[in-house]
Amino acid sequence: MSLKDEGDKDGGSSRHVTRRSPSPSKKDGVRGYTSKASLQDTATRLLEEYARAGKCVLVRAGYLDLLGNNWSCTVVGDGWVDTVVVRGTRDSRESEVKVVRMDAKEWEEGVPR
Predict the structure, then answer these.
(1) pLDDT 10s digits, 55-113
(2) What are the CA-CA distances from residue 59 to residues 7, 23, 29, 33, 91 (Å)?
């Protein structure tokens, strides 16, 4: 799955423009970016993109705090697991996204035989 660098879910330009961090190394599997959309809009868009990509299952999704400032989901695909955390900014106009991808290959490498 690839998240769009610019544009909204329909491909047009809008407040959903994001600034991505450099690509993560395969070693840490973490990528992050800032979305110019609210936490709710960003979370909705992320779930829609996973659904469009297919071949994955949403394991859980929900708020991590009582105030609704932090949201997370866990998605499982064939040989991988993504844990996504979305944090709203103080002014609620942007959100910070962190995606941690864990691959089965990485787990196998760490298991002593």
Answers:
(1) 999 999 999 999 999 999 999 999 999 999 999 988 888 999 999 999 988 777 766 65
(2) 27, 25, 19, 23, 30
Q: Whole-model pTM? A: 0.71
- In this structure, how many other beta carbons lie within 10 angstroms of the beta carbon of residue 64? 13
All residues at 6 or more sequence positions from 15 whose CB lies less than 8 Å from its CB, including other chains: 8, 36, 37, 41, 93
Instruction: Give CA–CA dist 10/89, Å, rounded.
Output: 24
* Pair 56, 47: CB distance under 8 Å: no
Q: Tokens in use for 42?
A: 């960003």
